[in-house]
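Minimal example, chain plus zinc ion.
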Amino acid sequence: MSLQLSQKGKQIIINNGFWEVIHDLRKGGCICSIRIFNGSGKNILVSPIASYFSQYSEIDWVYPDFRDEKDRDAKAEILKKSSDRIDLQVKAKLIDINLGPLGIEVETIYEYHNAYIKVHRIFRCRKKIPDIINVVGIGSIETIPELDYWCARNSSRREINETAREYATFVHMPIARWGRVESSNYPSYIEFHPSHYLCVFNRGVEGIETFPNSNLKEWERGLVPDGDRCARFAIYKKFNPTRTVIICEPHFGLWVKPLKLKGEYRFTSYLGIPNVSPKGVNKKYMWINGVLRINKNRWASEDEIKEMAKSGVQIIIHHHDSPYGHGLWPDGSFFWPDGKYPPYEPVEMKNLERSIHLVHKYGMKIIPYFNPFELHPFAEVFKKNIYNWARMFGKKRKLFHNYTKGGEYGVAVCMQSGFADFLKSYIKKVITTLGFDGAYFDGISSAYCNNLRHADWEHTTVDGMIELVEYTRELVGKEGIIVTHQTASPYICVENLVDICVIMEDVSGYPSFQKGTPELDCFTPYCDFVNVAHKAICAYTALRPGCPEDEIKKMMVRCAVKGLSFYSNQHYPYWREISLRLAGRDMSEYKFEDYRKNLVVIDNPKVKGALYKSTDEIIVVLGNTESPKEEHFSWSIDLNKCGWKEAKINIVSDKQRTPQLEIYNNTINISDSLNGYEFKFYYLKKLHDKKLI
Ligand SMILES: [Zn+2]
């Protein structure tokens, strides 16, 4: 993955091996084309990503509309160029095709990283601007209609005003909202303050995201310095041509006096485009477990660690931030307080070192838990820094303690403060001193903060969060492991940097409030999203102790046909039955095709089939996802459709050792049955010439 730059006439082309972005100097230097090679391969834009200063009128049919994309003679300069960073500066005028230039020039610096593009726009008034402008759009996006799902997070402003006492609003971290882009003149999503996040995507194929940087002052007060005004951040379906539109308008003042524009206006935002691999989601790492046996008051034994490795577990997360205790470890006596080093007394440090050694001995990776939004009072740096680093919200400048049984997780801190540098050096120290293989991050999510020691106005934590993940990838290298918990807050740019995203912790929490396993087609669209990072679901909330066993089995069989792994130590005996069946393989060599692709055709709708395919092996996953009773069915597969030419193959199921079926033609049809919520794996192996002799 490295950034390449080329120029063709008036077009500047940037390519990172996964996508190609084209700027056109005849269209204001705006981004006019984005092609994701292993997505649809088509240009997903139907018009340039533009900025505009306009006068919307309810009466006039044609109204002044000054846009950078209308400048046919933009200037460009490369300010920086390396394999992991290209800074492209573009200068253009805002022009209305009938009225000519407005007298505002826009200088845009596109800061290309491999995982995201940070876009800095500066608008400079070069002369007296007439008082006519009432709508300002910054980097609005129009895509092809195939991007028909959306995800967005509300503005901080709305969350502050919410009264529902649930975690998301309590700490002002708006939770992601998801939906279909509807064929309606009504917006699919709309917010009248700058949203934390906006994304449209073609489920499991490709997508695009944009969101403002941490500097909320630019977005909330830049154009009207002395008071609140209306913005419009929205997702619409629009027509002629049919398209999906993300609107980013920091000013939408149809019913107020026009803007008085003078001097300079700055807006910084992000663009995220998925780095989709030829095989789609890389499933090299899927299975995650832990080494602490909290309920049994001990660390895992060597035999248990060996067993995990044999069963296909690849990553151990040492997640131990809760002071909630058990038995020999009563409340508050044994946990890893966020930011403390060393985290434990010498005897437990020895146990930790031993566990790291054993995990490595059996070929697995081990990563510690880090929290980018809380710091525990036991950390040495706490006392001196907490008021400087605390994330504050509300009028009272008080610390927000996240109390729990046995103590607390810590105090809310802000990634736009000195805490960010502390956390980076802490991560480096923990990983390099103890020999961990990477990092697990809880909640990589932007949140609101009004601690004015961090900025001169209210801000969000997003810049620090994205820099943190980028820093960690550089620290641990390509072979290192990064897992992030993203339930509340998806980011394409984070997926581009990590191995696994943990999602779906909210099955029975806000805002679903449902019990049990979701219907097969009702798992969040986040499971597919933009086809980059593997998803491990953290849906233990649906399977609290005491839930009927059928609910657990239902969850597992549905995960199996969706290619999801399940992140919960307590349900290991159940998901182990899936990991075991994929153990010993390099799953990065396989492309997963889920049950909706219909590559496995089944004559009973209660049974679903998915597959993993490589050059030499197809693994068919069959699941009775819908019925508590035994279901009879036959399944078939057309090997041509799977990209296999005629070959001699062996078929064996996970229930049978011998005999293996040898099949020569390309269509396979097998009768079988599955008990309630049971799954079964078949392995189709190509026999090479040597074996034929
Ligand atoms: Zn802050």
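Confidence is low (pLDDT under 50) at residues 163-169. Residues 346-361 form the longest helix (16 residues).
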